[in-house]
Amino acid sequence: MSKGCITVTKYFLFLFNLLFFIFGALIMGFGLWILFDKESFIAVLESSDTVKVASYILIGVGSLTMAMGFFGCIGAIYEIRCLLGLYFTCLLLILIAQVTAAVLIYIQRDPLKHEMSVIIRGLIVNYSGQNKTTEHAWDFVQRTMKCCGWTGPGNWSENISIKNSTQKLYSCSCRNDTMPGTDMKEFGLCKQLSEQPPVFEMGCITSVEKWLLDNCGIILGICIGVAVLQLLGMILSMCLCKSVVQEDYTKVPKY
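Structure tokens predicted for Tetraspanin:
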């Protein structure tokens, strides 16, 4: 490989690893968001061991990706073969882990769906409107997705407070503003004035599945894009590693 090609490869790999470092920070941030977020659909699933494990995996992968990006930058700019080889190995392991995780999620999709259903049904049954974390997060989901219950509004008939009340009540966040009824409230249980509750008819499972289907192309595109970038990084690192005849550690800054 000519000196000009080596220089281009070296700096291109450096920029690639800089982007990889940023992507790693984003992945770690996403994992932290899943772990600590209290105001979205993820917060509803905070009791799920699967979600917690997934968040820890994302944090770990993000941290490893950041470290790998850093060492890749150093290895590329100073042409250190051992760091380039380590970078290639880590990148290969991450790619294998990603493919394995995707296969496991696909195989376990039905158990995951069942676990999610059990968690949300339990939340609806015990809903009181006083819990400011999971219950308010579920209210936010129903309000923004314009849905009611998990499979439908009938899930709310199992709620303990509604069953024990002498009045007809419904979930305030299910309120359909196109129908006549009480004033709009963001959370809690509202008094039903008409024979039929003024709520959305569609269950939230349908809304979630619709969102996933609508965004399936974007999610798949991101996954394929990341895999292509990883393969490109592996190719560039190997090309540069083979072109380095002898390492010159005097170029590495001393601290």
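Confidence is low (pLDDT under 50) at residues 251-255.
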